[in-house]
Amino acid sequence: MADPDTTRTVVGIIGNVISFFLFLSPGPTFVQILKAKSVMEFKPDPYIATVLNCAVWVFYGMPFVHPDSLLVITINGFGLAIELLYVSIFFIYSDWSKRQKIIIALVIEAIFMAILIFVTLTFLHGTKDRSMLIGIVAIVFNIIMYTSPLTVMKKVITTKSVKYMPFYLSLANFANGIVWACYALLKFDPYILIPNGLGSLSGLVQLILFAAFYRTTNWDEDEKEVELSTSKSNKSDV
Which stretch is the leader sequence (predicted)? Predict the structure, then answer.
């Protein structure tokens, strides 16, 4: 029988693998956006939130903040790169008003990270204090990342359509939250358990909504609507 530490390590590795696929799960959505050359009714909120979440966790994993956290840096570094790619695609195929919101959000996140790094490195001199501060901040933004799909869920309920709520992202969020919550329970860690418990709950609600409104969703793309959206986008860019 495997000892608890070995079991926890195995669960942690599984969590890393699932996190990797979590970052890749929105792929079909962006293929659809690229084909249509329009973001249609998709929202960038979850991806913008994940950019900041990954940036905070990458900083948390640095040797001068939390030593021996290479896996934290690698998985979140990959996540940061792929999420910036997603946001870039949103920016390219959005109209100017949506682009402004994306720019403002990213600027705010960059300023926040600059302040956080400055305060941590200037006023905190031990890895214990630095780990505690960045760990708490990371938890807060992990929760924001998991709750950011609320805007999408509201749209699903009002339109009775799950067309613009990516199924694979919802499924990956649910699986990721469950695995990391189990990881935290094996050797009780509230800092990991709280955000991932909420993440699994958020993913479960999304899956329930998907099941509830799947039949009322019109999956046939309205080409005229896409053409009109693209035309408006082009005009606004002139």
Answer: none
Separate counts of helices (H) and strands (E) for the chain:
10, 0
Residue 87 tokens read as 């946001």
Tell me the C-alpha distance between 111 and 237, whole Å.
Answer: 27
Closest Cα to residue 134, out of 49, 199, 70, 62? Answer: 62
What is the residue whose two structure tokens read 């929760």? 143
> Taking the CB of residue 147, how many other CB atoms lie within 10 A of it?
18
C-alpha 59 chain-centroid distance: 17
Contacting residues for 62 by C-beta, under 8 A, at least 6 apart: 69, 73
In three-state secondary structure terms, 17 is helix
DSSP H helical ranges for 61-166 = 70-92, 96-123, 127-147, 150-159
Task: Give the integer Cα–Cα distance in Å for 64 and 105.
Answer: 28
Query: Could you tell me which residues come within 8 angstroms of residue 30 by beta carbon, excluding any fewer than 6 positions away?
Result: 86, 89
Q: Which residue type, as a one-letter code, is found at position 132?
A: M
Highest mean pLDDT among 163-167, 181-185, 226-230: 181-185
Alpha helices by DSSP H, 124-189: 127-147, 150-159, 167-186
Question: CB–CB of 19/83 below 8 Å?
Answer: no
Give one word for 68, left, alpha or beta, with left for phi > 0 and alpha for psi -120 to 50. Answer: left
Share of the chain above pLDDT 90, in %: 32
In Å, how far from its chain's centre is CA 12? Answer: 19
What is the model's pLDDT at position 99? 94
